[in-house]
Specification:
Helix content is 43%, strand content 22%. The protein is an alpha/beta fold and 240 residues long.
Length: 240
């Protein structure tokens, strides 16, 4: 069951992306002109999306994929073009509406855009689960809970990104605390790759005793993307 801290942060994220930043996010995920800073974020996200898609099979016909925190659905579109049946979920009704508006007619029926929580059990099981920049706002303990939930519902792979602990990200996190609370976006929580790997390894090592869903999973490929104001790191979990 999601913790109180997860639920509190989830509410902040929903409010930010559905109201405060809805227009800016719609523009960022389009081909409309943006400022220099946002251009680096757009470029970084495009590179990260390509990385995660590279981790997926090129042929996904007959496979079910969860796009957890899908935003305006750009990754969902590419997965559907490979033949996947995509369940794309996001907390923001505004972003989901934008995603539905952008859905090409030829992909109708291959993607289901849904407003909701990425941990909702009624979503069922999937062959692949992808969470691009959906965990970067959560503390390590809550992020690990989400990863374990994904592992319990995925048959082949779980792909996610986290905010690696770098000097720049740590500085940005610290400076952000000085802004008025009403002006803040949900803070990105930097996580050291070593600590994340140790947490996953520890959960895997005690999986039998604790009945952890990570039993039978191991960390695979990883890649860090840094483009101006965008820094994120992809990680792959694969079933043994």
């Amino acid at each position: 069951m999601p913790s109180v801290s997860y639920q509190q942060r989830r509410g902040q994220i929903e409010a930010y992306f559905d109201r405060t930043a809805a227009d800016a996010w719609k523009r960022l995920t389009s081909d409309a002109p943006v400022s220099g800073i946002r251009a680096t974020v757009r470029a970084g996200r495009e590179q990260m999306r390509g990385t995660l898609l590279d981790y997926l099979p090129t042929e996904l016909s007959g496979k079910r994929l969860l796009d957890a925190g899908c935003g305006t659905g750009m990754l969902s579109l590419e997965a559907a073009r490979r033949g996947a049946h995509v369940y794309a979920v996001d907390l923001s009704p505004t972003l989901i509406e934008n995603a539905r508006e952008r859905l090409p007619k030829e992909l109708a029926g291959r993607i289901e855009f849904v407003v909701g929580d990425m941990l909702a059990p009624e979503q069922g099981e999937f062959d692949h689960i992808v969470a691009m920049d959906s965990l970067i706002h959560y503390e390590l303990e809550d992020a690990l809970t989400v990863i374990e939930d994904f592992a319990s519902r995925a048959r082949v792979s779980v792909l996610f990104t986290f905010a690696p602990r770098t000097v720049l990200l740590s500085l940005m996190h610290a400076v952000g605390q000085f802004f008025p609370r009403s002006d803040r976006s949900p803070a990105i929580v930097p996580v050291a790759e070593r600590k994340l790997r140790e947490a996953i390894a520890a959960a895997t090592a005690t999986a039998t005793a604790t009945n952890s869903p990570l039993l039978g999973w191991q960390a695979g490929r990883t890649q860090r993307i840094s483009r101006g104001f965008y820094t994120s790191q992809a990680m792959e979990l694969i079933r043994l």
